[in-house]
Amino acid sequence: MNDHKSVGIVMIEDDEGHARLIEKNIRRAGILNDIRHFTDGTTALDFLFDAADGPAKSGPALILLDLNLPDMSGTDILARIKAEGSPLRRAPVVVLTTTDDKVEIQRCYDLGCNVYITKPVNYESFAQAIRQLGLFLSVIQVPSAES
Amino acid sequence: MARISLKLPQSEGRIARWLVAFMTLGFVALAAAAVAIGWITVRNARYTADILHTQDVRQAIATLQVEMEQSETARRGYLLTGLPLFSTAYETTAQRLAPALTALRSSTHDNPRQTARLDLIEPRVGQLRSLRTQSIALVDAGRIGEAQRRFAVDASVPLMRSIRYRLRAMAAEEVRLLEIRSDRQQRSNMLFLSVAGLAALLLLVVAILAILVIRRYTADLGASRDRLHLLNETLEDQVVERTADLSRANDEIQRFAYIVSHDLRSPLVNVMGFTAELAEAAAPLAALIDRAEAIAPEIVTPEARIAAREDLPEAIGFIRASTQKMDRLINAILKLSREGRRSITPEPVDPAAVGDAIVASIQHLIDDRGATVTIDRPLPALVTDRLALEQILSNLIENATKYLQPGRPGVIRLAGTRERNRVILSVIDNGRGIAPGDHQRVFDLFRRAGPQDQPGEGIGLAHVRALAYRLGGTIDVVSTLGEGATFRLNLPFDLRLQDPVA
Fold it and tell me: Is B319's Cβ below 8 Å from some Cβ in A?
């Protein structure tokens, strides 16, 4: 990833273990960017839109989003990010969740999600998928947030 | 469609019971009235006979008196004139006297008072007769003067008076009896009339009650018939409704299974992931122990060596094996629930063709296991989901080839019958069978029966049952341990008619 622009990775994932495993496997793919982890939707939205060091106020960001959150659905966050006039509407959003429901996947792409990944049940596949995502992240271009 | 109850309301039943009780009571009273009327009639007849008897007695008294007077008149006429005309008249009347007396005695023998009077009259009549006979004999002999003289002094007149007096008493007695008996008969008649009137009234009441009861029962019968008719008409609807309920319940379980298995995956990914991390972390530790043992053996304690080389790998191995098993089970549930959520498309299906396709696809398995599969022809065609039916029959046939009785080549048959609007497909085998206690259990998820000598997670039949429910059907098994099993799949003939929610 474009290190010189210091793209922050925002991970919204309610399962601490998953978050840790995702982070470890992304690191193993050679990604060194800063990763901010949130376990619920409310604090994540606060950080994304209102924090002084958040993506809306400073610097580009890439968002890893789980759909099953305790306080709101991931699709609500996705809708907020991709809404008309949102400063983050061009920020890449990777939905990384256990749901493989066709309707849910369609809905996420309709809302503007950039990549939808189903977490594999098997850990080996899971680790591999995250590492490949890490490799993918290392090559994509991320636009800056609009001010 | 509302549920229909065949039960009568409580109050109606009670009223009907009361009516029947009243009616029974009415009939008993009627019978009693009839007996009473009969008894009164018999008594009346007796009273009438008594009155007639009294009249007869009075007649007999009168006759005796008349005969006695006439006989006396004839005697006196003969005494005065000596004409044979009177003699003949006397003979005739004197002859009648004895029978008249006998008749009176026989008709009054039941009345001691009359008998007592008669006892007084009879000797007097006898004396009178002998006096008369003497008079007649004297006149016959031409001694009229002597006869007349004797007549003037003999006891004839007082005797006559005495007899007359007693006969009058007898007549008076009979009049008294007549009065009593007439009175009794009148009272009896009155009783008869009132009892008859009462009976008529009773008859009227019973008739009204009977009409009421009959009307009520007729109405009840009519209502029952209507309800039966309605039940009959709605039976099919009810079956459809129940099947829809079953299908809904099944859907719910499928959704539940999906959510549960889905949510179970998340922690499992963690357990597996961190176990992998642990295994990775254990490798450098083991290497460190190796190095330490080579360079400075004194710092390596036996506990550390065992922990790094045996305990850690063993623990990780067990965690891995268990999580992998759990992973398989959860995947199986997930697969099951996914199958359950697949949409059903009814189309005309020939089960025999489906069977052929299955046999062709697992022919190598069948051959390997030394079994033969035959398919009855023709099998009843039906409208259902082809893929679901294929999966059900495939599971059943494969199971049949799998659980053979050792030492007996497998013979498997697919048969079918049509019963009204249901089609029953049977997979019959001669395998090792299922113990009766396990007939339900084999359809439960993760449950298996018999020796666990074949690979499997205990999912196949659970899947089959879930699919059967989705097709608006049921499945059961009939089996004797060691003699084979018959799985019977009962499906609607036409799934489109069966499934109003589809």
Answer: no
Q: What share of chain B is helix, strand, coil (3-state, %, to 5)?
A: 75, 10, 15
Contact B417, B490 (CB under 8 A): no
Residue of B nearest to A13 (CA): B266
| CB spacing of B330 vs A121 below 8 angstroms | yes
**Out of A15, A122, A127, closest to residue B266 by CB:** A15
Quick one: average pLDDT of A54-61? 80
Which residues in chain A have Cβ-Cβ distances shorter than 8 Å to B334? 121
Do the strands A35-38 and A8-12 form a parallel or antiparallel pair, or are they unpaired? parallel
Asked if B269 and A123 come within 8 Å (Cβ–Cβ), the reply is yes
Place of tokens 């530790």: B285
Percentage of residues of chain A with pLDDT beyond 90: 26
Cis omega (within 30 of 0) for bond into B378:
yes
* B331-343 core/surface letters (b: 16 or more CB in 10 A; e: else): bbbbebbebbeee
Full-model pTM: 0.48
In CATH terms, B10-220 corresponds, of 1.10.3210.10, 1.20.120.1730, 1.10.1740.10, 3.90.550.10, to 1.20.120.1730
Alpha-carbon gap, residue B196 to B175, rounded angstroms = 31
Q: DSSP secondary structure string, A33-66?
A: S-EEEESSHHHHHIIIII-TTSTTTSS-EEEEE-
> Looking at the domain assignment, is residue A146 inside a domain?
no
Instruction: Give the sign of the dihedral formed by CA A77, CA A83, CA A87, CA A91.
Output: positive
ipTM above threshold 0.85: no
Q: Where are the beta strands (DSSP E) in chain A?
A: 8-12, 35-38, 61-65, 93-97, 115-118
- With contact defined as beta carbons under 8 Å apart, do A93 and A126 qualify? no
CB contact under 8 A, A98 and B265: yes
Domain assignment of residue A145, yes or no = no
Q: How confident is the model at residue A107 (pLDDT cuts 50, 70, 90)?
A: very high
Torsional sign, CA B488, B493, B498, B499: positive
State the Cα–Cα distance between residues B176 and B170, nearest whole angstrom: 10
Q: Which residues of chain B register pLDDT less than 70?
A: 1-13, 498-502
CATH T-level assignment (fold) for domain B345-498: Heat Shock Protein 90 (3.30.565)
d(CA B436, CA B483): 12
Which helix (H) or strand (E) covers residue B419, if one does?
Answer: strand B410-419
